[in-house]
Design a protein that fits this description.
heterodimer; A: alpha+beta; Thrombin, subunit H; six-stranded antiparallel beta barrel; six-stranded antiparallel barrel; 6 helices; 12 strands; globular; B: mainly alpha; 8 helices; 0% strand
């Protein structure tokens, strides 16, 4: 190899190391370049991902008669259960409205926000100040070093940094970088993602953080990423109140995520840590909603978060 | 006749030759897009060979004149940008492979296919090891190496396929029958 070429290689490697160090100090470094490339590639990536999605739909259609019969039976059973639940919910809504009318003071709680937000999702319309945008995952980097996905909406559709991204299973992540027609979403399983949560049954306020690790999940019978409850914000006795199966939802204390979004369920508790299995199946991520949630007043929300904790705990608080 | 051929070559011959030189890069971009898109593989992506890197490796080993250092730098930059990785990570890995490929070229150019496959496997391992090591340094903790190892293995196993396909592309574009512009150029 000629000395000039060798010199060029070393120089470029040095430049690349410099870029890496700069990126370490400032996570926004290279963001414009990344989103420029993403914008250029997103139409092609969309074609790839849509055709692969169609392929999986086609393969999904090939089922045996027994499988279909069994699925049908299972769905009928689920419909019966959901019918019963819907009746109970209707009764509770009526009771809630009646009690609110009796109350002399009207105040906005995290539960109200959650209710508004849930209505927005269910009705397919924007409710109050909450706006939603449908998006499609065009590139999936969730199995690589950085847990992120690329979606096909961007600045042109009023997407901005920090917006929450959800699907029908729960919280997916938040928008980290925005291009003109695409945006990169940092998944909740990335170690850089830290979310204030409530562990419902225990009524505990905590933080969960993504990990780079996976664990075998007996329910789905495959390895799955998990989140970890941050120890720094918990007392040792708090950990003892957490049980496997506890629902973990966003508290909304950061003003970024709407309160009450399902994150997952506690999957393992030891003396040293608690693990949370995300409710979202990141292996099958395709359609998502970007939610422009205006956030709530932090102080009011902290009180409201407490209220949610009281309402949902099993009387221990 | 000679004047017409010369004129044809002057008008389109040079353009075609330059466009032809962009084919390896175009292949790389398409394969990287395929790799980056949501393939519905989920966790199975760990077993998906890195065809984009294998393609670059083929051109680095067999036709280095088409893969000069600045192109390799841009390839790394494009990879990092598209995959949302820390900027510089793939650039370092690609340049390291470029350096090894260039240093070993006198020895590898005389090797048979199996020998070249062995050398390619070494470079594939180097590429993934570089990415893993620099990423671990970047996040200041050891990243799980299993996925990198699996992908390296899958890439090494499927390298003959990539080699064959790229060889066909090369034969088609630079071979004797499809080279109208070369024919024109030579006669002129």
């Amino acid at each position: 190899m000629a000395w000039l070429q060798r010199f060029a290689v070393f120089l470029l490697i040095l430049i690349a190391v410099g870029m890496l160090v700069w990126n370490r100090m400032d996570a926004r470094f290279g963001s414009n370049a990344r989103m420029l490339v993403a914008d250029m590639m997103s139409p092609f990536l969309g074609l790839f991902s849509q055709s692969s999605a169609s392929m999986s739909q086609v393969t999904e259609r090939f089922k045996t008669y027994e499988e279909l019969a069994s699925e049908n039976e299972q769905l009928r059973a689920e419909v019966r259960i959901l019918d019963a639940k819907a009746q109970t919910v209707d009764q509770l809504i009526a009771e809630n409205d009646r009690l609110r009318r009796i109350l002399p003071i009207r105040y906005r709680t995290a539960a109200d926000e959650q209710w508004n937000w849930a209505r927005a999702l269910e009705s397919g319309r924007d409710v109050g100040e909450t706006k939603r945008m449908m998006a499609f995952v065009v590139a999936d980097h969730s199995r690589r070093y950085v847990r992120s996905v690329l979606i096909n909406v961007g600045r042109d559709e009023s997407v901005r940094q920090g917006l929450a991204v959800v699907n029908d299973e729960g919280l997916v992540g938040r928008v980290r970088e925005v291009g003109a027609s695409s945006a990169r979403v940092l998944l909740i399983t990335d170690p850089n993602s830290q979310i204030p949560v409530i562990i419902e049954r225990a009524g505990l306020n905590a933080f969960v953080r993504g990990t780079r690790e996976s664990a075998f999940d007996p329910d789905t019978r495959r390895a799955q990423d998990f989140l970890r409850v941050e120890q720094a914000f918990l007392l040792p006795e708090d950990l003892k109140t957490i049980e496997v199966g506890d629902r973990v939802i966003t508290s909304g204390a950061d003003g970024v995520f709407p309160p009450g979004l399902l994150i997952g369920f506690v999957s393992q508790v030891t003396d040293a840590e608690a693990q949370v299995r995300p409710s979202v199946d990141f292996d099958q991520l395709s359609d998502v909603l970007v939610v422009d949630y205006p956030g709530v007043d932090i102080n009011a929300d902290l009180i409201a978060v407490g209220a949610v904790g009281f309402q949902t705990s099993s009387g221990e608080n | 006749m000679r004047t017409i051929l010369f004129l044809l070559d002057f008008l389109i011959g040079g353009v075609l030759r330059r466009v032809r030189a962009l084919v390896p890069l175009a292949l790389f971009i398409v394969l990287l897009g395929f790799d980056a898109s949501a393939l519905g593989l989920g966790r199975g992506i760990a077993f998906l060979p890195d065809f984009a890197f294998a393609t670059i490796l083929f051109w680095l080993m067999r036709h280095p004149a088409l893969m000069p250092v600045p192109v390799v730098f841009v390839v790394g930059l494009w990879t990092d940008a598209l995959l949302g990785a820390p900027m510089g990570l793939s650039i370092i890995a690609y340049l390291t492979v470029f350096y090894i490929a260039s240093s070993l070229r006198p020895e590898t150019s005389t090797l048979g296919f199996m020998g070249q496959w062995g050398v390619a496997t070494l470079m594939i391992l180097t590429f993934f090891a570089c990415q893993w090591a620099f990423y671990s340094a970047f996040v200041l903790e050891l990243a799980p190496p299993l996925q990198s190892l699996t992908r390296a293995g899958a890439t090494a196993l499927t390298f003959p396929l990539v080699y064959g396909l790229n060889h066909l592309v090369y034969a088609f574009l630079w071979g004797r029958s499809a080279q109208f512009e070369d024919l024109v150029y030579d006669r002129a």
